[in-house]
TrEMBL record:
Keywords carried by this UniProt record: Ion transport, Membrane, Transmembrane, Transmembrane helix, Transport
Protein name: V-type proton ATPase subunit c''1
Gene3D superfamilies: lithium bound rotor ring of v- atpase (1.20.120.610)
InterPro entries: F/V-ATP_Csub_sf
GO biological process: monoatomic ion transport
TM regions (residue ranges): 20-51
Recorded family membership: Belongs to the V-ATPase proteolipid subunit family.
């Protein structure tokens, strides 16, 4: 077990800090895009429901 942990630590030390920053930025952008897509999907579903059921007003969409 000691050899396995030392190989991981050696691998992490040899990776460039720029690589870590690029990976972090990529994950951040990816999660942001997924969140935006989810929000658009939910809002679109609500708007389609509002068109089919006119009793739902736009005032109810803003919380």
């Amino acid at each position: 077990m000691v050899g396995a942990s030392s190989s991981w630590s050696r691998a992490l030390v040899q990776i460039s800090p720029s690589t870590f920053s690029v990976i972090g930025i990529a994950i951040g952008i990816g999660v942001s895009v997924l969140g935006a897509a989810w929000g658009i999907y939910i809002t679109g579903s609500i708007l389609i429901g509002a068109i089919k059921a006119p009793r739902i007003t736009s005032k109810n969409l803003i919380r």
